[in-house]
Amino acid sequence: MGFNPFETEKIGMQTLEKRLMKSNSNISLKIGLPKEVSDDERRICLTPDGVSVLTANDHEVFIEQEAGKEANFSDNEYADAGADLAYSIDEVYNKSDIILKVAPPTTEELEMLDDQQTLISAVHLGDTTEEFIQTLINKNITAIGFEFIKDENQEFPLVRMMHEITGSMAVQIGAHYLEIADGGQGIMLGGISGIPPATVLILGGEITAEYAARTALGYGAQVFVLDNDLARLRHLENALDRRITTATASYQYLSTALNHADVLIGASMEEGERAPCLVTEEMVANMKAGSVIVDTVIDQGGCISTSKPTTHSNPVFKEHDIIHYCVPNIPSNVARTATYALNNVIVPYLLAIGDAGGIKKSLWSNTALRNGTYVYKNHLTKKSLSKIFDISFREIEMLIASRI
């Protein structure tokens, strides 16, 4: 049987179904998918195929009308997969034990959460407030954050999937805004015969940086990667066949590289922490006019001092004649692809919760979910958040062991 390249979307889900259809869930989960209300958030956590896997394992899925519309999934597709369509966001929250979202709940959505519900969503460390965390604690919510889910291999699977998309798209965005119609220098990223390519400077050495470097090399750009972790730089050099130039992110190297950069991609971060701010305003002011900055970690506070969050509907601003693109949810612009990516990671976790007999029991055995939990039984369970907001915390292992 030949391979049909036009069926690529379904391949991952077909594999997932074959692997997971035999799940023996001990309880029936009630999973709610409200329509995202945050600015320009078009993704959703489950595809219709993902819903069909869950309903085949006796779980119930309640999805708000048109929740998948922006990712090009229709209500009929979800209904055919076995989901119950809800006609209001209140209905989703009232009927569900697990609320599954991409963006963190808004203030209004926080009010809808009830005692002992489970929230699974992104946290967005750059925007998280003490009030948000305290509300979850006071309401006795079990909160699991995408940014904290770490498996036994020390990988962050949800973060990785979104960072792969973000890195690739960051280069496309940089190339677009270099065009003169958008205020850029009017140069091509890859150059042509007799004309040298543009210079792409990538700050950071993790997954976003790797995929940005791959894409920039594909365009034909000259690529520099700066990071203070030599092991990461060695990995990137080997993975990319030494086609990039690397250096430590010292003040000297960074200042010199920025003077020559046409596109700066900010991707410096530490998982579960706020991003370190490495580029000063003075450095930005010394960049070439019409250059482009894409700060991919703005949702974690940003790694460039002149960055401030923007939206897909108003994505850029100029500071010191430098174009800044600082949209927190870059993958939302490819919402269908991003939804498939989220779905393929999240569905196995939901099945694991059902197999264990509920969220409380699953935290005993599932390392990734336990690592991902940041609020549990009226306590903050992440030391990093405790430092940021000066809220006392308790190790989740202690809470589980004490059977609180």
Brief overview:
This protein is α/β, with parallel strands linked by helices. It has 16 helices and 15 strands.
What does this structure look like?
The protein folds into 2 domains: 5-155 and 334-401, Rossmann fold, CATH 3.40.50.720; 164-328, 3-Layer(aba) Sandwich (Rossmann fold), CATH 3.40.50. By secondary structure, it is an alpha/beta fold. The model has no long low-confidence stretch (mean pLDDT 91). It is globular, with a radius of gyration of 22 Å. The relative contact order is 0.14. The longest helix is centred in the C-terminal third of the chain and has 22 residues, at 335-356. The termini are far apart. Helix 2 (48-56) packs parallel to helix 12 (335-356), helix 7 runs parallel beside helix 8 and helix 7 (157-177) packs antiparallel against helix 12 (335-356). The chain has 16 helices and 15 strands. The chain has helices spanning 8-20, 48-56, 75-80, 89-95, 107-112, 130-138, 157-177, 207-219, 230-239, 251-260, 281-285, 335-356, 359-365, 367-372, 383-389, 396-401; strands at residues 30-33, 60-64, 84-86, 98-100, 118-121, 142-145, 199-203, 222-226, 245-247, 263-266, 292-295, 316-319, 322-325, 373-376, 379-380. Helix content is 39%, strand content 14%. One of its GO terms (molecular function) is alanine dehydrogenase activity. One of its GO terms (cellular component) is plasma membrane. Keywords: Oxidoreductase. It comes from Fodinibius salinus.
